[in-house]
Design goal:
Number of strands: 12
Oligomer: single chain
Number of helices: 4
Order of helices and strands: EEHEHEEHEEEEEEEH
Shape: globular
Largest sheet: 6 strands, mixed
Radius of gyration: 18 Å
Strand content: 25-35%
Strand order of the largest sheet: 2-3-6-7-5-4
């Protein structure tokens, strides 16, 4: 069976100039501006865990989001980014929740209008990942590259080249066991999906 992968989690354009601001728990609202400041990357360790597929607690994600520029927000698709975390609209969330996410979950997030009080009449969810597998067969795969070795865990870190072709990443049959949405331990920043999940998304004509 097929397994699909995407590096969408590294696509910073998903959060670029969407007219959004947010606040973390026990913190103030971030400025209503398109410019990304260093302050917005304060939770870097959480982001590093997130892009490696670790499940995070609710307070690792922003508490609330506000739309300060409605025109810019119209550019947001079914999936976009807030504070480095992926957000999905209800239509895509309804598909994902039909499949196995491991210890991950879809976390409801309140969106407000520019007044920071009036809630938007649409449902949004953070995608909290929660599965890491180790099923890529390194010796049989092509267009992959070893980046480094973690000196503390001795875990090898690899990347998949952007020009990778179909059937060049080989996984063991164990990849089809368990969750339909996962990360590979040695390949951060890449989301793997079962053919079942991708087929479900396509049936809903979602991209």
């Amino acid at each position: 069976q097929k397994v699909w992968l995407t590096n969408i989690i590294k696509d910073y354009s998903l959060g670029d100039r969407l007219g959004l601001r947010y606040k973390d728990f026990d913190d103030h609202w971030r400025p209503a501006q398109h410019k990304v400041t260093d302050e917005s990357r304060a939770g870097l360790s959480d982001i590093e865990k997130y892009v490696a597929g670790y499940s995070l607690d609710r307070k690792s994600f922003p508490e609330s989001v506000a739309i300060f520029d409605e025109k810019c927000f119209r550019r947001a698709g079914e999936i976009f980014s807030v504070g480095g975390f992926l957000v999905t609209r209800k239509s895509l969330a309804d598909v994902i929740r039909q499949f196995d996410m491991g210890s991950g979950e879809l976390i409801p997030i309140k969106f407000h209008h520019a007044d920071l009080k009036t809630e938007v009449g649409e449902d949004f969810y953070f995608i909290n990942f929660g599965c890491r597998k180790n099923t890529v067969v390194i010796k049989d795969s092509k267009n992959i590259q070893k980046i480094t070795t973690n000196t503390h865990t001795l875990e090898e870190i690899w990347k998949i080249n952007n020009w990778v072709q179909n059937s060049e990443i080989i996984l063991t049959s164990n990849s089809l066991i368990g969750p339909d949405l996962w990360f590979e331990e040695r390949f951060p920043d890449v989301i793997f999906m079962s053919d079942r999940l991708v087929s479900g998304i396509r049936k809903k004509s979602l991209k």
